[in-house]
Amino acid sequence: MDSNAWDEIFRLLAAAGAGIAIGLNREMQGKPLGMRTLALVALGSAIAALTAVDYRGLDHNPDALSRVVQGVLQGVLTGIGFIGAGVVLRNKDAGTVEGLTTAASVWVTAAIGIACALAAWHLVIIGVVLTLVVLAGLGWVEDKLFPSRDAVNKPQNIDKA
């Protein structure tokens, strides 16, 4: 294997690792999405982006390569939106919506996977750190600022005897 292949392997491993880190936070919060799902989202995004960037048939035409990359990235991020939408639940009776943060974590994990594929390491590091700060830290802030909202949104255990 040449050095380019090892570099691409590292990029894919980094994408999966970033997805695992974000998924671990979701699992620790008891959310319906975890390490395996987000690792696959990031890995799939990275594979799609690497495939577009690595397509050798467009080496001599930068404009065509740019259009291919743009199309792949747009398709990945649009498609990931559909996966995220699948975890959003609306309860008309209670007036609540759940799963928006989980859906957003799917989307940001896909973007981090793309950054891994493009070897934008500063964006990967900053993206993972900020994502984890938002997921872990801002939940605590929301609980302190809006304690009544948290009580409304938590599911109640109703005994059906």
UniProtKB/TrEMBL annotation:
- Residue spans making up a coiled coil are none
Q: Does the keyword Zinc apply?
A: no
Gene Ontology cellular-component terms listed: plasma membrane
Q: Which family, according to the similarity comment?
A: Belongs to the MgtC/SapB family.
* Keywords linked to the UniProt accession: Cell inner membrane, Cell membrane, Membrane, Transmembrane, Transmembrane helix
InterPro entries to which the protein is assigned, alphabetical: MgtC/SapB/SrpB/YhiD_fam (IPR003416), MgtC_SapB_SrpB_YhiD_N (IPR049177)
- What is the protein name stated in its UniProt record? Protein MgtC
Instruction: Specify the protein's topology with respect to the membrane.
Output: Multi-pass membrane protein
- Start and end residues of each MgtC/SapB/SrpB/YhiD N-terminal domain: 12-143
Which locations, inside or outside the cell, does it occupy? Answer: Cell inner membrane; Cell membrane
Which ranges does the record mark as transmembrane? 37-56, 68-89, 96-115, 121-141
